[in-house]
DNA sequence: AATGTGTGCAACCGCCTGGAG
DNA sequence: ACTCCAGGCGGTTGCACACAT
């Protein structure tokens, strides 16, 4: 026998609310506010438990509730949010003014789920449901061949395969960004970072020390670029470091790509500025990444992160150093790889050698070619809206 | 008209979390 | 450190209604 509910224990009323009960609850809340829900029934003269009152108020009586059908915009929004958040109805409802989690949950279960299934889309993954027809097999074979062709471009690759735990979402609500970490021993990490973009309270600030950046991403042996994330809803995700070089972005300009599917025609664009130490001082406050505030006094990089067809490139240009290099990230055989394609005047490349990722200086005038590197994911927690992907290498 | 079936929605149930004592 | 309790959440249930047979 299961636990008795509070209503059973206290012999309270259950079931549908009568208009009289609604009136009592509404009058009480509008006059006195909510306060403590457990005391509301008594004060309002209701034979209900506090939980029941709370639910009735939130889902039905609250004056700011939007009634009626969901608009097509709301429907699209719910689909988008569900793709990112899953069945986190309360979080979804928080993005839809006037709608309750219960309402959205019901709408999803009764309409949207069926609609997606009709379209051949898995409502859980939001990806096409694969059916084992000949046609589908052909398509998969093509994808496989395409993947292998990509892999062949990485002729110097000797890395060992790992399970692809790396996942980037191709929805606009996610952003992806990356950077370089390096300690005093010049041990470096490149990270990719993912976060929900639409959350107005969440943003990142990346910082690093060192004033001698030239070529590549950073070539300063003492550079120390670390991440700070500010997210009041997820305080555990906050971390800050001693660093100086700012690396921040405007949330409205970033989104993500899905590497879990080679055929995904996902696309992302991301613009951000790298600034030198002097500029960073101006931007070290917790401002919301207004890029125009980031003046540059020496080193200034405009980066474009572009994702298309499950690959993205990362352009770095530096007017003063005549640097223009591009990183490409692709999923190949279930792994995410990066390569740097440097134009003349570029001075640094990442490459993989003997199972380790190496950074080398390169002054070749010609196009360098590709230097495959393996990105591994250190951690991913899909239950959290943000996580990091890091690969280590030594230069 | 009676009965069966499907659907949408309001409400409940049980679990989890965080704060107070 | 522990217990208790309120509030929040997602999953589930059950009722009312519409429609089909």
Automatic annotation (TrEMBL):
SUPFAM superfamilies referenced in this protein's UniProt entry, alphabetically: Homeodomain-like
Isomerase listed as a keyword: no
Keywords: DNA-binding, Nucleus, Repeat, Transcription, Transcription regulation
GO molecular function terms listed in the Swiss-Prot or TrEMBL record: transcription cis-regulatory region binding
Subcellular location: Nucleus
InterPro entries: Homeodomain-like_sf, Myb_dom, Plant_SW-associated_TFs, SANT/Myb
Protein name, UniProt field: Transcription factor MYB86
